[in-house]
Protein backbone atom coordinates (compact mmCIF):
# COMPACT_ATOMS: atom_id res chain seq x y z
CA UNK A 1 0.00 0.00 0.00
CA UNK A 2 1.50 3.39 -1.08
CA UNK A 3 2.41 5.81 1.64
CA UNK A 4 0.47 9.00 2.32
CA UNK A 5 3.41 10.99 0.96
CA UNK A 6 3.26 9.10 -2.35
CA UNK A 7 -0.53 9.60 -2.64
CA UNK A 8 -0.19 13.32 -2.02
CA UNK A 9 2.61 13.49 -4.59
CA UNK A 10 0.49 11.86 -7.31
CA UNK A 11 -2.54 13.98 -6.36
CA UNK A 12 -0.41 17.10 -6.67
CA UNK A 13 0.87 16.03 -10.08
CA UNK A 14 -2.69 15.23 -11.24
CA UNK A 15 -3.99 18.62 -10.11
CA UNK A 16 -1.00 20.35 -11.76
CA UNK A 17 -1.69 18.50 -15.01
CA UNK A 18 -5.35 19.48 -14.84
CA UNK A 19 -4.39 23.11 -14.23
CA UNK A 20 -1.91 23.14 -17.11
CA UNK A 21 -4.46 21.55 -19.47
CA UNK A 22 -7.02 24.16 -18.52
CA UNK A 23 -4.49 26.91 -19.06
CA UNK A 24 -3.61 25.49 -22.48
CA UNK A 25 -7.29 25.37 -23.50
CA UNK A 26 -7.81 28.94 -22.30
CA UNK A 27 -4.77 30.27 -24.13
CA UNK A 28 -5.60 28.36 -27.30
CA UNK A 29 -9.22 29.47 -27.47
CA UNK A 30 -8.85 32.90 -25.90
CA UNK A 31 -9.08 34.89 -29.20
CA UNK A 32 -12.42 33.36 -30.16
CA UNK A 33 -13.82 33.61 -26.62
CA UNK A 34 -12.72 37.22 -26.41
CA UNK A 35 -14.22 37.90 -29.77
CA UNK A 36 -17.57 36.45 -28.71
CA UNK A 37 -17.62 38.41 -25.47
CA UNK A 38 -16.68 41.65 -27.16
CA UNK A 39 -19.19 41.41 -30.04
CA UNK A 40 -17.24 40.07 -33.04
CA UNK A 41 -16.73 41.65 -36.41
CA UNK A 42 -19.61 41.46 -38.85
CA UNK A 43 -19.10 40.43 -42.48
CA UNK A 44 -21.45 42.07 -44.98
CA UNK A 45 -21.52 40.59 -48.47
CA UNK A 46 -22.40 42.71 -51.51
CA UNK A 47 -22.20 42.47 -55.29
CA UNK A 48 -21.87 46.25 -55.53
CA UNK A 49 -18.50 47.79 -56.28
CA UNK A 50 -16.96 50.96 -54.91
CA UNK A 51 -15.63 53.39 -57.50
CA UNK A 52 -14.28 55.84 -54.95
CA UNK A 53 -14.34 56.58 -51.22
CA UNK A 54 -13.76 60.30 -51.74
CA UNK A 55 -16.90 62.14 -50.53
CA UNK A 56 -16.40 64.80 -53.20
CA UNK A 57 -16.73 62.24 -56.00
CA UNK A 58 -18.74 59.29 -54.60
CA UNK A 59 -22.14 59.03 -56.25
CA UNK A 60 -23.50 55.50 -55.91
CA UNK A 61 -25.50 53.58 -53.33
CA UNK A 62 -22.78 51.43 -51.79
CA UNK A 63 -20.20 54.25 -51.57
CA UNK A 64 -22.85 56.46 -50.02
CA UNK A 65 -23.65 53.74 -47.50
CA UNK A 66 -19.99 53.47 -46.50
CA UNK A 67 -19.72 57.25 -46.15
CA UNK A 68 -22.92 57.24 -44.10
CA UNK A 69 -21.11 55.09 -41.54
CA UNK A 70 -17.61 56.59 -41.78
CA UNK A 71 -18.47 60.28 -41.97
CA UNK A 72 -20.87 62.75 -40.39
CA UNK A 73 -22.73 65.64 -41.98
CA UNK A 74 -24.26 68.82 -40.67
CA UNK A 75 -27.67 67.15 -40.83
CA UNK A 76 -28.93 63.59 -41.14
CA UNK A 77 -32.24 61.74 -41.12
CA UNK A 78 -33.80 60.53 -37.92
CA UNK A 79 -33.67 56.76 -37.60
CA UNK A 80 -36.83 55.17 -38.99
CA UNK A 81 -37.96 58.27 -40.88
CA UNK A 82 -37.02 60.90 -43.45
CA UNK A 83 -37.24 63.70 -40.88
CA UNK A 84 -34.15 65.90 -40.90
CA UNK A 85 -32.24 66.29 -37.62
CA UNK A 86 -28.94 68.00 -36.68
CA UNK A 87 -25.81 65.82 -36.65
CA UNK A 88 -22.62 67.91 -36.57
CA UNK A 89 -24.79 71.01 -36.41
CA UNK A 90 -25.87 72.03 -32.92
CA UNK A 91 -29.28 73.13 -34.16
CA UNK A 92 -31.31 73.89 -37.26
CA UNK A 93 -30.01 76.84 -39.33
CA UNK A 94 -30.90 80.47 -38.83
CA UNK A 95 -32.08 81.79 -42.19
CA UNK A 96 -32.09 85.41 -43.34
CA UNK A 97 -35.34 87.07 -44.37
CA UNK A 98 -34.47 86.78 -48.08
CA UNK A 99 -33.67 83.06 -47.67
CA UNK A 100 -30.15 83.46 -49.05
CA UNK A 101 -27.98 83.30 -45.91
CA UNK A 102 -27.76 80.31 -43.57
CA UNK A 103 -25.94 80.47 -40.25
CA UNK A 104 -25.32 77.15 -38.55
CA UNK A 105 -23.98 76.60 -35.03
CA UNK A 106 -21.76 73.54 -34.65
CA UNK A 107 -21.18 70.96 -31.93
CA UNK A 108 -17.84 71.01 -30.12
CA UNK A 109 -15.40 68.40 -28.83
CA UNK A 110 -15.52 66.30 -32.02
CA UNK A 111 -12.38 64.66 -33.46
CA UNK A 112 -11.48 63.49 -36.95
CA UNK A 113 -10.05 59.99 -37.37
CA UNK A 114 -6.55 61.49 -37.61
CA UNK A 115 -6.97 63.10 -34.18
CA UNK A 116 -7.43 66.67 -35.39
CA UNK A 117 -10.33 68.87 -34.26
CA UNK A 118 -13.58 69.37 -36.09
CA UNK A 119 -14.68 73.02 -36.27
CA UNK A 120 -16.30 75.52 -38.62
CA UNK A 121 -13.08 75.98 -40.61
CA UNK A 122 -12.94 72.24 -41.24
CA UNK A 123 -16.59 72.14 -42.29
CA UNK A 124 -16.11 75.09 -44.65
CA UNK A 125 -13.04 73.38 -46.14
CA UNK A 126 -15.03 70.18 -46.70
CA UNK A 127 -17.97 71.86 -48.45
CA UNK A 128 -15.77 74.13 -50.55
CA UNK A 129 -13.68 71.16 -51.65
CA UNK A 130 -16.86 69.28 -52.58
CA UNK A 131 -17.92 72.19 -54.77
CA UNK A 132 -14.58 73.14 -56.34
CA UNK A 133 -13.26 69.71 -57.32
CA UNK A 134 -16.21 69.22 -59.66
CA UNK A 135 -16.85 65.56 -58.83
CA UNK A 136 -19.93 63.67 -59.99
CA UNK A 137 -22.25 65.03 -57.25
CA UNK A 138 -20.70 68.53 -57.03
CA UNK A 139 -23.62 70.17 -58.86
CA UNK A 140 -25.84 69.55 -55.85
CA UNK A 141 -24.13 72.43 -54.05
CA UNK A 142 -22.26 74.17 -56.88
CA UNK A 143 -25.51 75.09 -58.64
CA UNK A 144 -26.92 76.83 -55.59
CA UNK A 145 -24.11 77.90 -53.20
CA UNK A 146 -22.26 81.22 -53.54
CA UNK A 147 -19.92 80.94 -50.57
CA UNK A 148 -19.13 78.91 -47.45
CA UNK A 149 -17.06 80.36 -44.62
CA UNK A 150 -16.41 80.07 -40.90
CA UNK A 151 -17.53 83.07 -38.85
CA UNK A 152 -16.01 81.56 -35.69
CA UNK A 153 -14.81 78.11 -34.60
CA UNK A 154 -18.42 77.16 -33.88
CA UNK A 155 -20.43 79.08 -36.50
CA UNK A 156 -20.67 78.47 -40.24
CA UNK A 157 -22.16 80.78 -42.86
CA UNK A 158 -23.48 79.59 -46.22
CA UNK A 159 -24.75 82.01 -48.86
CA UNK A 160 -27.00 80.87 -51.71
CA UNK A 161 -27.45 82.14 -55.26
CA UNK A 162 -31.22 81.86 -54.93
CA UNK A 163 -33.76 80.86 -52.34
CA UNK A 164 -34.08 77.10 -51.96
CA UNK A 165 -36.67 76.00 -49.45
CA UNK A 166 -35.26 72.52 -48.87
CA UNK A 167 -31.56 73.49 -48.82
CA UNK A 168 -30.76 71.82 -45.44
CA UNK A 169 -31.61 68.46 -47.05
CA UNK A 170 -28.67 68.96 -49.42
CA UNK A 171 -26.41 69.23 -46.38
CA UNK A 172 -27.53 65.72 -45.38
CA UNK A 173 -26.22 64.23 -48.63
CA UNK A 174 -23.50 61.69 -47.78
CA UNK A 175 -20.92 63.51 -49.92
CA UNK A 176 -21.41 66.77 -48.01
CA UNK A 177 -19.52 65.23 -45.11
CA UNK A 178 -16.88 66.73 -42.84
CA UNK A 179 -13.37 65.54 -43.75
CA UNK A 180 -10.04 66.39 -42.14
CA UNK A 181 -8.35 69.42 -43.75
CA UNK A 182 -5.01 68.07 -42.52
CA UNK A 183 -5.48 64.86 -44.51
CA UNK A 184 -6.81 66.51 -47.69
CA UNK A 185 -5.47 70.07 -47.94
CA UNK A 186 -2.27 69.21 -49.83
CA UNK A 187 -4.01 67.10 -52.48
CA UNK A 188 -5.09 68.64 -55.77
CA UNK A 189 -7.46 65.87 -56.83
CA UNK A 190 -9.55 63.08 -55.39
CA UNK A 191 -8.35 60.42 -52.94
CA UNK A 192 -10.34 57.35 -54.01
CA UNK A 193 -8.89 54.81 -51.57
CA UNK A 194 -9.27 56.52 -48.20
CA UNK A 195 -11.55 58.75 -46.20
CA UNK A 196 -10.80 60.63 -42.96
CA UNK A 197 -14.06 61.70 -41.37
CA UNK A 198 -15.61 61.97 -37.90
CA UNK A 199 -17.90 58.93 -38.04
CA UNK A 200 -18.36 55.89 -35.85
CA UNK A 201 -16.00 53.85 -38.08
CA UNK A 202 -12.63 54.51 -39.64
CA UNK A 203 -11.10 52.71 -42.61
CA UNK A 204 -8.71 49.97 -41.48
CA UNK A 205 -7.92 48.28 -44.78
CA UNK A 206 -9.20 48.59 -48.33
CA UNK A 207 -8.32 46.09 -51.04
CA UNK A 208 -10.16 47.27 -54.14
CA UNK A 209 -12.62 44.71 -55.46
CA UNK A 210 -12.00 42.41 -52.49
CA UNK A 211 -12.65 43.78 -49.01
CA UNK A 212 -13.12 46.97 -47.01
CA UNK A 213 -12.42 46.68 -43.28
CA UNK A 214 -13.95 49.30 -41.01
CA UNK A 215 -12.88 49.61 -37.38
CA UNK A 216 -14.75 51.44 -34.60
CA UNK A 217 -13.32 54.91 -33.98
CA UNK A 218 -12.41 54.97 -30.25
CA UNK A 219 -12.82 58.74 -29.97
CA UNK A 220 -16.18 58.90 -31.71
CA UNK A 221 -18.34 61.63 -30.19
CA UNK A 222 -21.53 59.56 -30.35
CA UNK A 223 -22.54 56.06 -29.31
CA UNK A 224 -19.96 53.35 -30.00
CA UNK A 225 -20.85 50.53 -32.45
CA UNK A 226 -22.26 47.28 -31.07
CA UNK A 227 -19.72 45.23 -33.03
CA UNK A 228 -15.93 44.99 -33.20
CA UNK A 229 -15.88 46.17 -36.81
CA UNK A 230 -17.32 45.62 -40.27
CA UNK A 231 -15.80 43.63 -43.12
CA UNK A 232 -17.50 44.63 -46.36
CA UNK A 233 -16.86 41.68 -48.69
CA UNK A 234 -17.21 42.34 -52.44
CA UNK A 235 -18.64 39.28 -54.20
CA UNK A 236 -18.56 38.68 -57.95
CA UNK A 237 -22.20 37.68 -58.58
CA UNK A 238 -25.56 37.51 -56.85
CA UNK A 239 -25.45 33.70 -57.14
CA UNK A 240 -22.18 33.67 -55.20
CA UNK A 241 -23.59 36.14 -52.69
CA UNK A 242 -26.63 33.92 -52.11
CA UNK A 243 -24.45 30.84 -51.67
CA UNK A 244 -22.05 32.66 -49.34
CA UNK A 245 -24.94 33.80 -47.17
CA UNK A 246 -26.56 30.37 -46.99
CA UNK A 247 -23.28 28.66 -46.05
CA UNK A 248 -22.34 31.28 -43.45
CA UNK A 249 -19.53 32.88 -45.45
CA UNK A 250 -21.09 36.27 -44.75
CA UNK A 251 -23.29 37.38 -41.85
CA UNK A 252 -25.36 39.80 -43.91
CA UNK A 253 -26.36 39.85 -47.60
CA UNK A 254 -26.87 43.41 -48.82
CA UNK A 255 -27.17 44.73 -52.38
CA UNK A 256 -27.96 43.04 -54.64
CA UNK A 257 -29.98 39.84 -55.03
CA UNK A 258 -32.44 39.08 -57.81
CA UNK A 259 -36.20 38.98 -57.12
CA UNK A 260 -36.15 35.16 -57.36
CA UNK A 261 -33.27 34.93 -54.88
CA UNK A 262 -34.98 37.32 -52.47
CA UNK A 263 -38.15 35.24 -52.71
CA UNK A 264 -36.13 32.09 -52.00
CA UNK A 265 -34.68 33.61 -48.84
CA UNK A 266 -38.06 34.93 -47.71
CA UNK A 267 -39.66 31.49 -48.11
CA UNK A 268 -36.92 29.75 -46.11
CA UNK A 269 -36.26 32.49 -43.54
CA UNK A 270 -38.52 31.17 -40.77
CA UNK A 271 -37.21 27.61 -41.05
CA UNK A 272 -33.57 28.72 -41.08
CA UNK A 273 -33.98 31.50 -38.54
CA UNK A 274 -32.71 34.13 -40.97
CA UNK A 275 -33.48 37.76 -40.30
CA UNK A 276 -35.14 39.90 -42.97
CA UNK A 277 -34.78 43.68 -42.93
CA UNK A 278 -36.70 45.57 -45.59
CA UNK A 279 -38.13 48.97 -46.24
CA UNK A 280 -39.89 50.73 -49.07
CA UNK A 281 -37.14 52.45 -51.00
CA UNK A 282 -37.23 55.60 -53.10
CA UNK A 283 -35.33 54.33 -56.12
CA UNK A 284 -37.65 54.63 -59.13
CA UNK A 285 -37.67 52.80 -62.45
CA UNK A 286 -38.91 54.65 -65.51
CA UNK A 287 -38.81 55.00 -69.30
CA UNK A 288 -37.28 58.05 -70.94
CA UNK A 289 -38.87 59.00 -74.27
CA UNK A 290 -36.99 61.07 -76.84
CA UNK A 291 -39.60 63.65 -77.82
CA UNK A 292 -37.49 64.83 -80.80
CA UNK A 293 -37.28 61.46 -82.52
CA UNK A 294 -40.10 60.00 -84.66
CA UNK A 295 -42.49 58.42 -83.89
CA UNK A 296 -42.19 59.70 -80.30
CA UNK A 297 -42.31 63.30 -81.45
CA UNK A 298 -46.04 62.57 -81.78
CA UNK A 299 -47.74 63.18 -78.41
CA UNK A 300 -50.46 60.58 -79.04
CA UNK A 301 -47.84 57.87 -79.58
CA UNK A 302 -46.21 58.69 -76.25
CA UNK A 303 -49.59 58.70 -74.53
CA UNK A 304 -50.46 55.35 -76.14
CA UNK A 305 -47.30 53.76 -74.74
CA UNK A 306 -48.19 55.15 -71.30
CA UNK A 307 -51.61 53.51 -71.58
CA UNK A 308 -50.14 50.20 -72.75
CA UNK A 309 -47.85 49.65 -69.74
CA UNK A 310 -49.16 47.03 -67.30
CA UNK A 311 -47.32 47.72 -64.05
CA UNK A 312 -49.20 45.33 -61.70
CA UNK A 313 -48.63 42.41 -64.07
CA UNK A 314 -44.85 42.76 -63.93
CA UNK A 315 -44.88 43.59 -60.23
CA UNK A 316 -46.45 40.19 -59.59
CA UNK A 317 -44.94 37.94 -62.27
CA UNK A 318 -41.41 39.33 -62.61
CA UNK A 319 -40.69 41.23 -59.39
CA UNK A 320 -42.71 38.92 -57.10
CA UNK A 321 -44.21 42.01 -55.43
CA UNK A 322 -40.77 43.32 -54.42
CA UNK A 323 -41.37 46.43 -56.52
CA UNK A 324 -44.63 48.35 -56.48
CA UNK A 325 -46.37 50.13 -59.38
CA UNK A 326 -45.51 53.81 -59.64
CA UNK A 327 -47.68 56.44 -61.36
CA UNK A 328 -45.55 59.56 -60.88
CA UNK A 329 -41.84 60.27 -60.96
CA UNK A 330 -42.31 61.33 -57.33
CA UNK A 331 -42.26 58.09 -55.27
CA UNK A 332 -45.07 57.09 -52.94
CA UNK A 333 -42.76 57.46 -49.94
CA UNK A 334 -43.13 61.25 -50.31
CA UNK A 335 -46.39 62.95 -49.39
CA UNK A 336 -46.64 64.98 -52.60
CA UNK A 337 -46.75 61.98 -54.94
CA UNK A 338 -49.85 62.15 -57.16
CA UNK A 339 -50.82 59.07 -59.29
CA UNK A 340 -51.39 61.16 -62.41
CA UNK A 341 -50.47 58.41 -64.90
CA UNK A 342 -52.94 56.03 -63.29
CA UNK A 343 -55.63 58.69 -63.39
CA UNK A 344 -55.08 59.41 -67.10
CA UNK A 345 -54.14 56.04 -68.56
CA UNK A 346 -54.69 53.17 -66.12
CA UNK A 347 -52.72 49.95 -66.65
CA UNK A 348 -52.57 47.77 -69.75
CA UNK A 349 -55.30 49.93 -71.27
CA UNK A 350 -55.24 48.46 -74.77
CA UNK A 351 -58.48 50.13 -75.82
CA UNK A 352 -57.16 53.63 -75.04
CA UNK A 353 -53.77 52.86 -76.59
CA UNK A 354 -55.39 51.70 -79.86
CA UNK A 355 -57.64 54.76 -79.93
CA UNK A 356 -54.70 57.13 -79.53
CA UNK A 357 -52.62 55.35 -82.17
CA UNK A 358 -55.55 55.33 -84.58
CA UNK A 359 -55.91 59.10 -84.07
CA UNK A 360 -52.19 59.39 -84.81
CA UNK A 361 -52.73 57.68 -88.20
CA UNK A 362 -51.67 54.10 -87.43
CA UNK A 363 -53.49 50.78 -87.87
CA UNK A 364 -52.89 47.04 -87.71
CA UNK A 365 -51.92 47.20 -91.37
CA UNK A 366 -49.70 50.24 -90.75
CA UNK A 367 -48.32 49.77 -87.21
CA UNK A 368 -46.15 52.18 -85.29
CA UNK A 369 -42.71 50.77 -84.51
CA UNK A 370 -40.90 51.67 -81.27
CA UNK A 371 -37.61 50.34 -79.92
CA UNK A 372 -37.30 49.66 -76.19
CA UNK A 373 -33.62 50.06 -75.25
CA UNK A 374 -32.39 48.60 -71.97
CA UNK A 375 -29.38 47.27 -70.08
CA UNK A 376 -29.24 43.52 -69.35
CA UNK A 377 -28.78 44.42 -65.67
CA UNK A 378 -31.88 46.63 -65.62
CA UNK A 379 -34.01 45.83 -62.56
CA UNK A 380 -31.94 42.71 -61.92
CA UNK A 381 -32.91 40.94 -65.16
CA UNK A 382 -33.56 43.33 -68.02
CA UNK A 383 -34.21 40.58 -70.54
CA UNK A 384 -37.01 39.04 -68.49
CA UNK A 385 -38.53 42.42 -67.61
CA UNK A 386 -38.63 43.67 -71.19
CA UNK A 387 -39.72 40.42 -72.82
CA UNK A 388 -42.61 40.13 -70.36
CA UNK A 389 -43.58 43.75 -70.97
CA UNK A 390 -43.44 43.28 -74.74
CA UNK A 391 -45.67 40.20 -74.57
CA UNK A 392 -48.20 42.01 -72.38
CA UNK A 393 -48.36 44.97 -74.77
CA UNK A 394 -48.83 42.67 -77.77
CA UNK A 395 -51.70 40.92 -75.98
CA UNK A 396 -53.44 44.11 -74.78
CA UNK A 397 -52.85 46.46 -77.72
CA UNK A 398 -52.48 44.20 -80.76
CA UNK A 399 -50.58 44.61 -84.03
CA UNK A 400 -50.97 48.38 -84.18
CA UNK A 401 -47.99 48.78 -81.84
CA UNK A 402 -44.79 46.87 -82.63
CA UNK A 403 -42.12 46.78 -79.94
CA UNK A 404 -38.52 45.89 -80.79
CA UNK A 405 -36.19 45.08 -77.90
CA UNK A 406 -32.64 46.47 -78.05
CA UNK A 407 -30.06 45.90 -75.31
CA UNK A 408 -26.84 47.75 -74.62
CA UNK A 409 -24.52 47.91 -71.62
CA UNK A 410 -25.01 50.79 -69.20
CA UNK A 411 -21.63 52.44 -69.85
CA UNK A 412 -22.31 52.66 -73.59
CA UNK A 413 -25.85 53.86 -72.98
CA UNK A 414 -24.78 56.81 -70.85
CA UNK A 415 -22.18 57.79 -73.44
CA UNK A 416 -24.86 58.33 -76.07
CA UNK A 417 -28.06 59.05 -74.13
CA UNK A 418 -27.68 62.83 -74.18
CA UNK A 419 -26.88 62.76 -77.91
CA UNK A 420 -30.35 61.56 -78.87
CA UNK A 421 -29.29 58.13 -80.15
CA UNK A 422 -32.12 56.19 -78.45
CA UNK A 423 -35.84 56.70 -78.99
CA UNK A 424 -36.54 55.20 -75.54
CA UNK A 425 -34.46 53.90 -72.66
CA UNK A 426 -35.34 52.05 -69.47
CA UNK A 427 -33.52 53.59 -66.50
CA UNK A 428 -33.59 53.88 -62.74
CA UNK A 429 -33.01 56.88 -60.49
CA UNK A 430 -31.39 56.91 -57.07
CA UNK A 431 -32.34 60.09 -55.18
CA UNK A 432 -29.75 62.45 -53.76
CA UNK A 433 -32.15 63.88 -51.19
CA UNK A 434 -35.63 62.96 -50.04
CA UNK A 435 -37.67 65.76 -51.53
CA UNK A 436 -40.09 65.81 -54.54
CA UNK A 437 -37.84 68.31 -56.32
CA UNK A 438 -35.14 65.65 -56.67
CA UNK A 439 -37.53 63.57 -58.79
CA UNK A 440 -38.70 66.44 -61.01
CA UNK A 441 -36.03 69.10 -61.52
CA UNK A 442 -33.30 66.63 -62.70
CA UNK A 443 -35.71 65.25 -65.30
CA UNK A 444 -37.75 68.14 -66.63
CA UNK A 445 -35.79 71.40 -66.57
CA UNK A 446 -34.00 72.85 -69.57
CA UNK A 447 -31.45 75.69 -69.69
CA UNK A 448 -31.29 76.27 -73.46
CA UNK A 449 -34.01 75.30 -75.91
CA UNK A 450 -36.23 76.20 -78.82
CA UNK A 451 -39.73 75.05 -79.56
CA UNK A 452 -38.47 73.58 -82.86
CA UNK A 453 -35.43 71.63 -81.56
CA UNK A 454 -36.49 71.00 -77.98
CA UNK A 455 -33.96 71.06 -75.18
CA UNK A 456 -30.41 71.75 -76.36
CA UNK A 457 -28.80 71.98 -72.93
CA UNK A 458 -30.19 71.02 -69.56
CA UNK A 459 -31.43 68.20 -67.38
CA UNK A 460 -33.94 66.77 -69.84
CA UNK A 461 -31.27 66.73 -72.57
CA UNK A 462 -28.89 64.90 -70.23
CA UNK A 463 -31.63 62.33 -69.55
CA UNK A 464 -32.11 61.77 -73.28
CA UNK A 465 -35.68 63.12 -73.42
CA UNK A 466 -34.96 66.61 -74.87
CA UNK A 467 -38.27 67.76 -73.42
CA UNK A 468 -38.84 71.50 -73.20
CA UNK A 469 -41.80 73.25 -71.64
CA UNK A 470 -41.33 76.83 -70.38
CA UNK A 471 -44.32 76.43 -68.05
CA UNK A 472 -42.63 73.46 -66.39
CA UNK A 473 -39.41 75.45 -65.99
CA UNK A 474 -41.33 78.24 -64.25
CA UNK A 475 -43.31 75.89 -61.99
CA UNK A 476 -40.19 74.05 -60.87
CA UNK A 477 -38.44 77.33 -60.10
CA UNK A 478 -41.48 78.50 -58.11
CA UNK A 479 -41.79 75.37 -55.96
CA UNK A 480 -38.08 75.52 -55.11
CA UNK A 481 -38.62 78.98 -53.61
CA UNK A 482 -42.03 78.47 -52.04
CA UNK A 483 -41.99 78.36 -48.22
CA UNK A 484 -45.74 77.77 -47.75
CA UNK A 485 -46.26 73.95 -47.69
CA UNK A 486 -49.78 74.10 -49.12
CA UNK A 487 -48.79 76.38 -51.98
CA UNK A 488 -45.75 74.27 -52.74
CA UNK A 489 -47.88 71.10 -52.82
CA UNK A 490 -50.22 72.74 -55.32
CA UNK A 491 -47.27 73.60 -57.58
CA UNK A 492 -45.89 70.06 -57.33
CA UNK A 493 -49.30 68.63 -58.21
CA UNK A 494 -49.53 70.80 -61.32
CA UNK A 495 -46.05 69.73 -62.45
CA UNK A 496 -47.00 66.06 -62.13
CA UNK A 497 -50.23 66.64 -64.07
CA UNK A 498 -48.37 68.29 -66.96
CA UNK A 499 -45.77 65.50 -66.90
CA UNK A 500 -48.52 62.89 -67.32
CA UNK A 501 -50.10 64.88 -70.14
CA UNK A 502 -46.87 65.47 -72.10
CA UNK A 503 -45.25 62.06 -71.37
CA UNK A 504 -41.52 62.79 -71.76
CA UNK A 505 -41.03 60.06 -69.13
CA UNK A 506 -43.18 57.17 -67.96
CA UNK A 507 -42.85 56.10 -64.29
CA UNK A 508 -42.96 52.32 -63.84
CA UNK A 509 -42.03 50.89 -60.44
CA UNK A 510 -40.62 51.80 -57.06
CA UNK A 511 -38.13 49.54 -55.32
CA UNK A 512 -38.08 47.81 -51.98
CA UNK A 513 -34.70 47.44 -50.29
CA UNK A 514 -33.68 44.20 -48.55
CA UNK A 515 -30.92 43.00 -46.23
CA UNK A 516 -30.73 39.44 -44.91
CA UNK A 517 -28.98 38.38 -41.71
CA UNK A 518 -27.92 34.99 -40.39
CA UNK A 519 -29.82 33.52 -37.44
CA UNK A 520 -27.75 35.19 -34.70
CA UNK A 521 -27.61 38.63 -36.32
CA UNK A 522 -29.44 41.39 -34.45
CA UNK A 523 -29.98 45.10 -35.05
CA UNK A 524 -30.30 44.73 -38.83
CA UNK A 525 -32.48 47.57 -40.13
CA UNK A 526 -32.89 49.20 -43.54
CA UNK A 527 -33.70 52.86 -43.08
CA UNK A 528 -36.38 54.64 -45.17
CA UNK A 529 -33.42 56.50 -46.70
CA UNK A 530 -32.13 53.07 -47.88
CA UNK A 531 -29.11 53.29 -45.60
CA UNK A 532 -27.81 50.41 -43.50
CA UNK A 533 -26.50 51.57 -40.11
CA UNK A 534 -23.55 49.24 -39.46
CA UNK A 535 -23.16 50.35 -35.83
CA UNK A 536 -26.45 48.71 -34.77
CA UNK A 537 -25.59 45.24 -36.10
CA UNK A 538 -24.26 42.61 -33.73
CA UNK A 539 -24.17 38.84 -33.27
CA UNK A 540 -26.12 37.35 -30.38
CA UNK A 541 -25.00 34.23 -28.49
CA UNK A 542 -28.63 33.18 -28.06
CA UNK A 543 -30.01 31.77 -31.32
CA UNK A 544 -33.55 31.71 -29.88
CA UNK A 545 -33.87 35.50 -29.58
Largest sheet: 9 strands, mixed
Please give the CATH class of the largest domain: Alpha Beta
- Overall 3D form: globular
Distance between the termini: 57 Å
Q: Can you tell me the CATH superfamily of the largest domain?
A: Periplasmic binding protein-like II
Portion in beta strands: 15-25%
CATH architecture of the largest domain: 3-Layer(aba) Sandwich
Radius of gyration: 28 Å
Give the key terms.
alpha+beta, 18 helices, globular, Dipeptide-binding Protein, domain 3, four-stranded antiparallel sheet, 2 domains, 545 residues
Structure description:
- The structure is a single chain.
- Helix 9 packs antiparallel against helix 12 (350-359), helix 12 (350-359) packs across helix 13 and helix 17 runs antiparallel to helix 18.
- Strands 1, 8, 9, 10, 11, 12, 13, 16 and 19 form a 9-stranded mixed β-sheet that branches. A 4-stranded antiparallel β-sheet has the order 4-5-7-6, with helices on one face.
- The chain is built from 18 helices and 21 strands.
- It has helices spanning 4-37, 61-70, 120-132, 139-142, 167-170, 181-184, 238-246, 259-272, 299-308, 311-317, 340-345, 350-359, 382-397, 410-416, 441-444, 459-463, 470-481, 485-502, and strands at residues 42-46, 75-77, 84-86, 94-95, 101-105, 145-152, 155-160, 201-207, 211-216, 230-234, 252-254, 275-289, 323-325, 368-374, 401-407, 424-429, 448-450, 454-457, 505-517, 521-522, 538-539.
- Helices cover 34% and strands 21% of the residues.
- It has 2 domains: 61-274 and 518-539, 3-Layer(aba) Sandwich (D-Maltodextrin-Binding Protein, domain 2), CATH 3.40.190.10; 282-511, Dipeptide-binding Protein, Domain 3 (Dipeptide-binding Protein, domain 3, Roll), CATH 3.10.105.10.
- Strand 8 and strand 9 (211-216) form a beta hairpin.
- By secondary structure, the chain is an alpha+beta fold.
- The model is unreliable at 25-38 (pLDDT under 50).
Amino acid sequence: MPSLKTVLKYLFLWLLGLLLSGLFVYLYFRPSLSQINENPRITIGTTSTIRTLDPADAYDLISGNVLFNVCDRLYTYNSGSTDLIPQLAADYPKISADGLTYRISLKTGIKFHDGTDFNAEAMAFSLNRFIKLGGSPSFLLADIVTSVKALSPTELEIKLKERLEFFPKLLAFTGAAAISPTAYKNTEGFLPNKVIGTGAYQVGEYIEGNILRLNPFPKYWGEQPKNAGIDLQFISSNANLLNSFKTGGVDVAWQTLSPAQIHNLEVNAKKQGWKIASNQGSVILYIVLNVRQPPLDNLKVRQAIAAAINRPLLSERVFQNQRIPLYSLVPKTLNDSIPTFQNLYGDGNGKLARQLLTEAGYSDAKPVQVSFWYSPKYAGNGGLVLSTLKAAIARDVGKILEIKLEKVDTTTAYSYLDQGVYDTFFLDWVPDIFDPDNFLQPFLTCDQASLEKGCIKGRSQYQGSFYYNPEINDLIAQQRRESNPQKRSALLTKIQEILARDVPFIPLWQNKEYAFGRSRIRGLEVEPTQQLDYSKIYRSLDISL
